[in-house]
């Protein structure tokens, strides 16, 4: 019996599809003849069977290095751009790192990492390499404090949902995402671009949104994803008017009805849907009926993904989940039955489940538990509201009260602020228990979004 | 607007929002008789903090919560500007 065939990224790339590119704001690399080129200065052989830390300052070189290393390295740890450098030593020890791919080699001399390989552009010619093994992909969870956890994936698990969906219909898509591709949500789009025969346009954290959208247009981006916060920012910017993608996806945060409707209005010819995925649980499901939440009959076994709700949180078992947390003090990633507890709290209303918030994000209001997301979803329904954040504020009387910061749609007459505030409060009173109704609504110009594209919740 | 007027305006606004029918507000009306519950008072204190910049009930460790409308208003009037 022959060993099971192993597919690496290189095995999905061939010269038969012309004109494929991977580009950022400054450079573009041809994916068509990528297999006979190297971003690693031709040093790929040295990285064979190594545990490689991928620590690069840009996504383009990161993506090219992933293509080269997959199937050659034993494991590769993807470092997102906002990784706290103070956590590097712990991560290197936990992942058993013995090589680093970097664009700042000087920083690594004397670091104790045995092998330092510089990733550089332009690409140099190289002999195509052959897949040797199934590389373990290590991704970092996006928790806000402490050393992030390392979740171990295989390419097969990472691409399970992509293979299940089958190829995109119509002309080869041009993919883009507001995420960084070293995060789970962004990596999904990068892998889709590789597997689907298309091109991809990378984001750049230093680029103004209007310039980014101009670049998406210039490259004819057809398929694009981001968090609801990313999309709200785009809707607020006024730049959406020049952009006409065919496929718009949201993930990473709760997609409420307001943002889904906003995107449908802004992109009337696009398919607008939201997906549920996380670094640990993998891709759970997609919702394409234009509504928030998901049908209750998604629970059970659907296309190989099993879901159940226990103690209010969504649990997922499938071949697309990470297989383990990696490291010295790693805890179990799944329960005894193999289910990942997502920590995402859901509520059944009628025949649909609705996401209400993160288990760890609950705020305490006078002894009562409140999910800020639930309040924001109600506030966001007001037609003049673009984005909001609910949080708790200390109160000498009840211990805590809910306050909300709200961004109004562009061009809202400031004279209407009081009227809008009253309408928002009425809306909240009609749909929320009294302790969840914001005591104070403050209109603000901007709300912080984390580098991972999620609304910053400093008090959560 | 005087501090007193600001406090009274805020009480009336919150009463309207919370569907509380206020009796006539006089200095010796006990706060209990306003019909406000603790949540309504918490909202009142938070809004007044935003408007005046002070929360007299958190500033001082030994501040007893006032008993009457008059005490409540004076708590704001007596905070050094």
From TrEMBL, chain A:
GO terms for cellular component: membrane. Its EC number is 6.2.1.3. Pfam families: AMP-binding, AMP-binding_C. It comes from the Bacteria. PANTHER family: LONG-CHAIN-FATTY-ACID--COA LIGASE. Its main location: membrane. Residues 125-312 form the AMP-dependent synthetase/ligase domain. It is a peripheral membrane protein. This is Long-chain-fatty-acid--CoA ligase. Gene3D superfamilies: 3.30.300.30, N-terminal domain of ligase-like. It is found in: Membrane. Keywords: Ligase, Membrane. GO terms for molecular function: long-chain fatty acid-CoA ligase activity. Residues 374-454 form the AMP-binding enzyme C-terminal domain. Pathway: Lipid metabolism; fatty acid beta-oxidation.
UniProtKB/TrEMBL annotation, chain B:
It comes from Bradyrhizobium neotropicale. This is Acyl carrier protein. Residues 11-55 form the Carrier domain. Gene3D superfamilies: ACP-like. Transmembrane segments: none annotated. SUPFAM superfamilies: ACP-like. It comes from the Bacteria.
């Amino acid at each position: 019996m022959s060993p099971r065939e192993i597919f690496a990224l290189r095995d999905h790339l061939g010269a038969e599809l012309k004109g494929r590119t991977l580009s950022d704001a400054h450079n573009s690399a041809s994916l068509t003849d990528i297999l006979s080129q190297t971003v690693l200065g031709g040093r790929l052989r040295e990285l064979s069977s190594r545990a490689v830390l991928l620590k690069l300052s840009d996504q383009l070189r990161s993506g090219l290095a992933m293509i080269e290393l997959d199937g050659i390295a034993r494991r590769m740890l993807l470092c997102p751009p906002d990784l706290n450098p103070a956590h590097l030593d712990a991560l290197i020890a936990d992942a058993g790192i013995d090589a680093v791919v970097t664009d700042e080699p000087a920083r690594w001399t004397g670091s104790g990492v045995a092998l330092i390989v510089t990733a550089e552009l332009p690409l140099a010619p190289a002999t195509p390499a052959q897949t040797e093994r199934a590389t373990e992909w290590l991704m970092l969870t996006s928790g806000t404090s402490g050393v992030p956890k390392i979740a171990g994936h295989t390419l097969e698990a990472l691409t399970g949902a992509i293979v299940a969906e089958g190829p995109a219909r119509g002309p080869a898509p041009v993919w883009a995402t507001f995420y960084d591709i070293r995060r789970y949500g962004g990596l999904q789009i990068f892998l889709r671009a590789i597997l689907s025969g298309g091109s991809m346009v990378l984001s750049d954290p230093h680029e103004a949104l209007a310039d980014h959208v101009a670049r998406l247009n210039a490259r004819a981006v057809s398929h694009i994803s981001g968090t609801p916060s990313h999309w709200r920012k785009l809707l607020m910017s006024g730049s959406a008017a020049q952009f006409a993608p065919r496929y718009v996806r949201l993930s990473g945060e709760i997609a409420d009805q307001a943002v889904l409707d906003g995107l449908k209005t802004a992109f009337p010819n696009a398919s607008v849907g939201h997906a549920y995925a996380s670094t640990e649980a993998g891709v759970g499901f997609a919702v394409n009926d234009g509504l928030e939440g998901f049908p209750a009959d998604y629970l059970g076994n659907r296309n190989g993904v099993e879901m159940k709700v226990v103690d209010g949180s969504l649990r997922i078992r499938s071949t697309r989940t990470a297989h383990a947390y990696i490291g010295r003090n790693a805890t179990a990633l799944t329960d005894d039955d193999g289910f990942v507890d997502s920590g995402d709290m859901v509520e059944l209303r009628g025949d649909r489940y609705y996401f209400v918030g993160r288990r760890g994000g609950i705020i305490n209001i006078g002894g009562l538990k409140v999910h800020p997301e639930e309040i924001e979803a109600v506030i966001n329904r007001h037609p003049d509201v673009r984005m909001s954040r609910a949080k708790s504020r200390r109160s000498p009387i009840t211990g805590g009260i809910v306050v909300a910061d709200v961004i109004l749609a562009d061009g809202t007459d400031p004279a209407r602020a009081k009227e809008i505030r009253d309408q928002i409060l009425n809306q909240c009173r009609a749909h929320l228990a009294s302790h969840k109704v914001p005591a104070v609504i403050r209109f603000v110009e901007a709300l912080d979004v984390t580098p991972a594209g999620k609304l910053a919740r400093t008090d959560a | 607007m005087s501090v007193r007027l600001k406090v009274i305006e805020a009480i009336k606004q919150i009463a309207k929002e919370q569907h509380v029918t206020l009796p006539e507000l006089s200095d010796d009306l006990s706060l209990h008789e306003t019909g406000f519950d603790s949540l309504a008072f918490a909202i009142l204190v938070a809004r007044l903090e935003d408007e005046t910049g002070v929360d007299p009930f958190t500033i001082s460790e030994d501040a007893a919560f006032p008993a009457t409308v008059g005490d409540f208003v004076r708590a704001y009037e007596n905070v050094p500007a």
